[in-house]
Amino acid sequence: MINEAMIFAAGLGKRMYPLTKDKPKPLVKIKNKSILKKNIEKLIENNFKNIIVNAFHYPEQIKDEIKKYSSVKIIIEKDRLETGGGLVNAINENYFEEDSPIILLNSDIFWENKSYNSLEKIKKLWNPNEMDMLLCLKEKEDFFGYDGHGDFGLINPDKCPSQLRKAKINPYAYTGLQVTKQEVFKNIKKKYFSIKDKIFESLEKQKLFGYIDQNPWFHIGTINALEDFRKNYNE
Question: Which regions in the chain score pLDDT beneath 70?
């Protein structure tokens, strides 16, 4: 059963400046509610019993934002550990049940459950016998706020989920939602590193899988993306 999660909320939000001059990026509001709170409430609605949020930039504001949720715990980092280091720290400090798979979620993305429940979807597709990680993907042209060149392709487009590949042209973007095995992050000596490092290790081991989500996804990582969202979605 997958009912534990970690939300990465320790970024500096440099691309959201000056909004993040005096508050952390996860507390930027979308339709009168912070992105962080939107994602926490989705997890709670899906019966997640243990939700960990790491914080670094104005951590007391994040602590105040989550204080009413009994299932949410905060880790305030003295040094900014990045996503991989933050997860390793949470595992080493025994914030999760041993060996349980964990949902990981970036704090500058959110989605709307139009076609189905995306959290239920990724949990149903998870297969620990085949996978170390399962990524939720979106066609890059259909991922609001995404400005990259694509992250992955599918080895078998007719299979859901499919093992992932990297090529010169990658049509799909990683949304920021995934399931991972804890064992992938155990016994790591590095303190500061990105979760991308372990994603690419899983790719090389042929243990990285993904699926294309059909719901609307939004990446609110820059001032321009925030302004475009507010303009186009009648906020």
Answer: 234-235
Number of domains in the chain: 1
Please state at what angle helix 35-45 crosses helix 59-66, rounded to 10 degrees: 40
Strand order in the sheet with 143-144: 109-111, 217-219, 143-144
For residue 216, is the peptide bond before it cis, meaning its omega torsion is within 30 degrees of 0?
no
Task: Supply 116's token pair.
Answer: 């189905």
Output the six-digit token pair for 41: 């409430």
* DSSP reduced 3-state for 100: coil
H-type alpha helices, the chain: 35-45, 59-66, 82-92, 118-125, 195-204, 223-232
**Structural domain of residue 155, as residue ranges?**
4-232
What does the alpha-carbon distance between residue 198 and residue 234 come to, in Å, rounded to a whole number?
Answer: 39
Q: What is the pLDDT of residue 16?
A: 87
Whole-prediction pTM: 0.95
For residue 53, list its beta bridge partners. Answer: 7, 74
For 215, the token pair is 């719901």
